[in-house]
Amino acid sequence: MHERRRKFWGWGWEGEGLTREELKLLDPVWAKRLGVSEFEITPPPAAEEISLRLPRIAIPSSLKEVCTIDHYERLAHCYGQSFPDSVRIFQRDFSNPPDVVALPRTEQDIVDIFDWCGSTGAAAIPYGGGSSVVGGVEPPRSEHYQATVTIDLRNLNRVIEIDPVSEAARIQAGTYGPALEAQLKPSGLTLRHFPQSFEFSTLGGWIATRSGGHFATLHTHIDELVESLRVVTPKGIIETRRLPGDGAGPSADRLFIGSEGIFGIITEAWMRLRKRPTFRAGTTVRFADFYKAADAVRVISQAGLYPANCRLLDAQEAAMAGAGDGRHALLVLAFESADHPLDAWMNRALEICGDHGGEWDRTALEKSGSHREGAAGAWRNAFLRACYLRENLTARGVLSDTFETAITWERFADFHSNVKDEVQRVISKVTGNRAWVTCRFTYIYPDGPAPYFTFVSMGNKENLLDQFYTVKRAASDALLKHGGTITHHHAVGRMHRPQYDRQRPELFAEALRAAKREFDPKWMLNPGVLIDH
Ligand SMILES: Cc1cc2nc3c(=O)[nH]c(=O)nc-3n(C[C@H](O)[C@H](O)[C@H](O)COP(=O)(O)OP(=O)(O)OC[C@H]3O[C@@H](n4cnc5c(N)ncnc54)[C@H](O)[C@@H]3O)c2cc1C
Fold it and tell me: By residue range, what is the domain housing residue 76?
């Protein structure tokens, strides 16, 4: 039987994506919004039309079983899933492929691959699902490295052990989201960490990038779910202790959580689980005023209610997701529990919404699976299908991306209007076309939200990359200038380096470099990510 393969030029499996019917519905909507009569569509590349540079190193016989120079594997590991990655793919630019793709099956394989990279002067790129949107898995262009070996962890894909008493599991880092939950399911336990990229990203990638899951409050990042870690560094293996909490000095786990593959490869982790929820209460609330809605969300976040879902979409974003009328902001609100009914929590949250001008359908409060229906259902469906949008928008020459941040509540309103205005102005100047900049909150904290912006405008295929970088620089600078962070959960990678370097205290950068020298003395792992020599 033919094994299914991931697309090398976009999201998902080969043969999957937006259907012809979906595109037939979407095309006129996009054309109207972007002010064009129709699109000129560039077809995706075929593997046969691309020729790759010959590998610059030869695989030693001892590693032949775990390394490959297969054309398709090398193609599929050239890029992550960022907008510039997609543009370069549609431009057929595969000028800097990895020389070798390694597929280790054991920690010893990783040790051997590191030894080989060290002796040949190759860079080693840890690779989970390759869903990085910040250039985290791209081979370096530096002359300093003789070659690039991308280390794909997809064969480390098992839940090894489940502890039902403490509700935790020992899981290999290359396990993709669906396989991870499927292996946990018979135990009745779940990790319940659902980034939008869940289907094609891995546990190790989530930990290495401090990814954000579906919880809007409390367990927003993966960090809180990590109980202990095992990491193979070029200098040796580190394993931390399984503990529910630990006050013994700075946390070793925290040094590796968010380290983006620069210190070592996370091979497995004990993760905190929970029982699958059986109680649910959810609804959507409309607000005529986005800032009043934000105020309601602030009060909810400070009331100790901790909703699982508290996503506020501005009016345009709600309309684009097919969930709103274009005049009202929409709050998708939900509570979940495996232990108790949630009416009291929901009623109090709705009372707060009412105090801030929110309106909701009082007959449609749902208790179980109906979050898949109505406005919340429409938003959820659009959210899941959105992963396939990028390749279709790039093919049409649309300039479109997202950027995310966090800011304290007292600065939010000014921050939001300044960032939105500045980015909108730059896009219109760059493209000469109408620009849409929308905002939603993905995560909220008692002291502030994590606003997530989306921008769309009709670009010019001839210089789409230049247009993108001008807008991206302006957006990133605006986030910093107005007091936010360069990223709340998309990580730093190579793309956010200029702003990360400015936001991070220099003495801390020195400490990171010192740690890097200790774990990776030959500086082979993921050069260009987080720090330089
Ligand atoms: C459509 C889409 C939706 C997304 N939605 C979300 C979202 O909801 N929340 C969110 O947080 N992010 C999201 N992302 C970004 C991305 O999915 C996350 O950063 C994710 O955590 C990356 O996981 P991965 O397994 O794909 O890692 P990769 O992309 O393969 O790698 C990411 C980084 O981690 C390093 N790395 C990977 N595995 C390991 C390991 N085992 N040990 C050490 N280093 C490693 C890599 O070298 C790289 O620097 C989205 C991306 C896309 C394209």
Answer: 65-155
98 and 142 fall within a common domain: yes
Best probe residue, ligand 1, of 196, 220, 226, 388 (max atoms within 8 Å of C-beta): 196
For a substitution probing ligand 1, which of 103, 200, 201 has the most ligand atoms within 8 Å of its CB?
A: 201
| Residue 480 predicted with pLDDT over 70 | yes
Could you tell me if residue 36 is inside a domain? Answer: no
Q: Locate 187 and state its tokens.
A: 């135990």
Residues 254 and 311 in one domain: no
Tokens linked to 26 = 């979407």
- Nearest residue (by CA) to ligand 1, atom 8, is 195
Q: Which residues contact 245 (CB under 8 A, 6 or more apart)?
A: none
Q: How many domains does the chain have?
A: 3
pLDDT for residue 1: 58
Return the structure tokens found at 178.
Answer: 């669906």
Q: Which residues lie below 8 Å from residue 197, measured CB to CB, with a gap of 6+?
A: 81, 129, 131, 387
Give 203-217 as a DSSP string: HHHHHHHT-B-S-SS
The answer on pLDDT for 367 being more than 60 is: no
> Which residue's C-alpha comes closest to atom 28 of ligand 1?
130
What amino acid occupies position 131? S
- Among 275, 291, 326, where does a domain finish? 275
Residue 489 Cα: closest atom of ligand 1: 11
Residue 4: count of CB within 10 angstroms of its CB: 9
Burial 345-370 (b: 16+ CB within 10 A, else e): bbeebbebbeebebebeeeeebeeee
Q: Which of 275, 297, 313 is the last residue of a domain?
A: 275
Q: Whose CA is nearest to atom 50 of ligand 1?
A: 197
The answer to whether the CB of 163 falls within 8 A of the CB of 189 is no
Q: Using CA positions, which residue lies closest to atom 23 of ligand 1?
A: 205
Identify the pLDDT of residue 382.
77
Could you give the CA distance from residue 97 to residue 51 in angstroms, rounded to a whole number? 10
419-454 burial string, b = 16+ CB within 10 Å, else e?
bbebbbebbeebbebebbbbbbbbbbbeebbbbbbb
Residue 132, domain member (yes or no): yes
Q: Please state the rounded mean pLDDT for residues 343-370.
A: 85
DSSP secondary structure of 80-106: -SSHHHHHHHHTT---S--SEEE--SS
* Ligand 1 atom closest to the CA of 207, numbered from 1: 21
pTM of the model: 0.97
What's 234's domain CATH number? 3.30.465.10
